[in-house]
């Protein structure tokens, strides 16, 4: 395993511990190349591994792709070039590039995607502003590190128009889809889930369901129950977080580069510590040289015409 990939796993574990992922999810290092590029120091962030993102990843400087959505989700009975995603994985492995996915661990962790969405909905001045918000988990907490979904409690109720305008501004979206109940009213409680939130939000008592997408009958049921529904598009609720992840990952690499050594014999998520091996000056220099980049071609797969 390359030094970049090894330390990227350690860094991502600090940012979004894999134990926070949902039981059904497939997270962590999903592809480890057998021929790592010796001088590659770029980590490429993306939501999906599309053909265009693949071309970016095949550039000689790339050592690792951090793909938010798992590139391998269901068990594979074969791995062939006839399947586009499998072909991308084979090409990356042959070229010396590995792939890591944090998915729902990054949703659930404190300061992760769902908290960012809460800021987008609750902070009038933007998700990076110093704005105090009252936010809770939709379900049980997962220890002290995070939990599933979020519910945002606004101090002062707002109209749905004001809320939608705030979301569009903070997430840099031209439009969102909105379901409205028969009787209009101001809103103060917003249930939040990144991506496809129907199964998480359904039945929760809130004025607004805010997510990426929901099934038709889930939307109908929510609106019939007197709730507003705000749908931004699945990946639109995730992609805007990538700059924050890039910043966190760069900081984590810098911190790790300053440490004395790494745990040679333990996996990043292990609770037991292995033997500490001092870093050489060349390894420290490699860690300091790591560049965390966001894909320039990753985008929402649908366009409105």
UniProtKB/TrEMBL annotation:
UniProt-annotated binding residues for a divalent metal cation: 69, 107, 234, 238
Similarity section: Belongs to the GTP cyclohydrolase I type 2/NIF3 family.
Residue segments, region Disordered: 259-284
Cellular component, GO annotation: mitochondrion
UniProt-listed SUPFAM superfamilies: NIF3 (NGG1p interacting factor 3)-like
UniProt keyword list: Metal-binding
Name of the molecule in the record: NGG1p interacting factor 3
């Amino acid at each position: 395993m390359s030094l970049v990939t090894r330390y990227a796993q350690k860094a991502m574990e600090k940012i979004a511990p894999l134990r926070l992922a949902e039981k059904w999810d497939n997270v962590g290092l999903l592809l480890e190349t057998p021929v790592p590029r010796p001088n590659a120091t770029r980590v490429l962030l993306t939501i999906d591994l599309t053909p265009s993102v693949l071309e970016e990843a095949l550039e000689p400087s790339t050592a690792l792709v951090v793909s938010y959505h798992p590139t391998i989700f269901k068990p594979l009975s074969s791995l062939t070039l006839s399947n586009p995603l499998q072909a991308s994985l084979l090409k990356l492995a042959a070229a010396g590039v590995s792939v890591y996915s944090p998915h729902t661990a990054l949703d659930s962790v404190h300061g992760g995607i769902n908290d960012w969405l809460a800021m987008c909905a609750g902070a009038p001045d933007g998700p990076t502003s110093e704005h105090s918000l009252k936010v809770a988990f939709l379900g049980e907490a997962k220890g002290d590190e995070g939990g599933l979904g979020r519910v945002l409690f606004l101090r002062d109720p707002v109209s749905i128009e004001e809320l939608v305008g705030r979301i569009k501004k903070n997430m840099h979206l031209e439009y969102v889809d909105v379901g409205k109940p028969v009787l209009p009213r101001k809103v103060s409680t917003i249930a939040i889930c990144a991506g496809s939130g129907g199964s998480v939000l359904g039945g929760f008592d809130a004025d607004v369901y805010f997510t990426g997408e929901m099934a038709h009958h889930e939307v109908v049921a929510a609106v019939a129950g007197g709730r507003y529904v705000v749908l931004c598009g699945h990946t639109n609720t995730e992609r805007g977080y990538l700059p924050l992840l890039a910043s966190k990952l760069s900081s984590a690499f810098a911190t790790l580069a300053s440490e004395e050594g790494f745990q040679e014999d333990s996996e990043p998520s292990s609770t037991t510590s292995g033997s500490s091996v001092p870093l050489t000056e060349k390894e420290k220099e490699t860690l300091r040289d790591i560049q965390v980049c966001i894909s320039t071609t990753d985008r929402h797969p649908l366009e409105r015409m």
